[in-house]
Design brief:
Layout: E1 5-9, H1 16-29, E2 37-41, H2 47-54, E3 59-63, H3 80-85, E4 88-93, H4 96-101, H5 106-118, E5 122-127, H6 131-135, H7 139-154, H8 156-160, E6 163-166, H9 180-195, H10 199-204, E7 206-210, H11 215-222, E8 229-232, H12 239-248
Parallel strand pairs: 1-2, 1-8, 2-3, 3-4, 4-5, 5-6, 6-7, 7-8
Helix pairs in contact: 1-2, 1-12, 5-7, 7-9, 11-12
The structure holds 2-phosphoglycolic acid.
Length: 249
């Protein structure tokens, strides 16, 4: 059995005050989230603060991105070893906002995935199609291409130590969730593709769904056979909403 993981992606949101409040709200209710593994991914500058606030709790810490480089003359970058030093366990790589707004392509994403692993971080690799790609009927091709870039660089074994997040771009921040069956179909495709390369990896890897997950739709999404939790944007910014999703796990 794969453990359910619910990870909050706070994106470019928060302030010292609001983040302290959000974390204390999450910690106040985390006791009744059962076996669900929980993580939060604050903006880089708040990672030391959140790391301290989470001490001794079951909530793990992640970053929203990671440099493909470990150190050196790379102005503005934050490396895997730095994130590790501040207690991060996860690093999101290849989020669709990075791909679309900052022109991060499949190969660059694969190098970030490799950098996260080098530092001992668990990459949360985001994949997913745009609305246009879905309408063209090429969802599976797009997701396969995004996965293949990582598998070519790092090997199939590396996927076994990672988390995959299927996030249809048309469902992110739009209030339009993929139906549980639509999501399950792509999750099953991903797991099937991995199984063609390594059955053990396919069985083990957690595949999260992301895109307008809320307390009201989380349980039916997480009940699908190949959906092992969620990557949550908007709803992770309100402690009660986030906790409701964690409890659905
Ligand atoms: P959303 O974002 O939950 O606000 O749709 C999900 C994500 O981008 O990870």
């Amino acid at each position: 059995m794969r453990q359910t993981l619910v990870a909050g992606n706070w994106k470019l949101n928060g302030s010292l005050d609001s983040i302290k409040q959000l974390v204390s709200g999450i910690l106040a209710g985390i006791g009744d989230t059962g076996d669900t593994a929980v993580a939060v991914c604050p903006p880089f500058v708040y990672i030391p603060l959140v790391s301290e606030l989470l001490q001794g709790s079951k909530v793990a810490l992640g970053s929203q991105d990671v440099s493909d480089q470990d150190s050196g003359a790379f102005t503005g970058e934050v490396s895997g070893p730095m994130l590790k030093e501040f207690g991060c366990r996860y690093a999101i790589v290849g989020h669709s906002e990075r791909r679309a707004l900052y022109a991060e392509d499949d190969e660059f994403t694969a190098r970030k995935f490799a950098a996260a692993r080098r530092a001992g971080l668990t990459p949360i690799l985001c994949v997913g199609e745009t609305l246009e790609e879905r309408e063209q009927g090429i969802t599976e091709d797009v997701v396969a291409r995004q996965l293949d870039a990582v598998i070519e660089l790092e090997g199939i074994g590396a996927i076994g130590d990672a988390v995959i997040a299927y996030e249809p771009v048309w469902a992110i921040g739009t209030g339009k969730t993929a139906s549980p069956q639509q999501a399950q179909d792509v999750h099953a495709f991903i797991r099937g593709k991995l199984a063609g390369l390594d059955g053990g990896v396919a069985e083990k890897v957690q595949i999260l769904y992301g895109g307008s997950v809320k307390g009201s739709n989380a349980a039916e999404l997480f009940a699908m056979e190949d959906i092992d939790g969620g990557l949550i944007g908007g709803a992770s910014l309100v402690a009660d909403d986030f906790l409701a999703i964690c409890r659905a796990g």
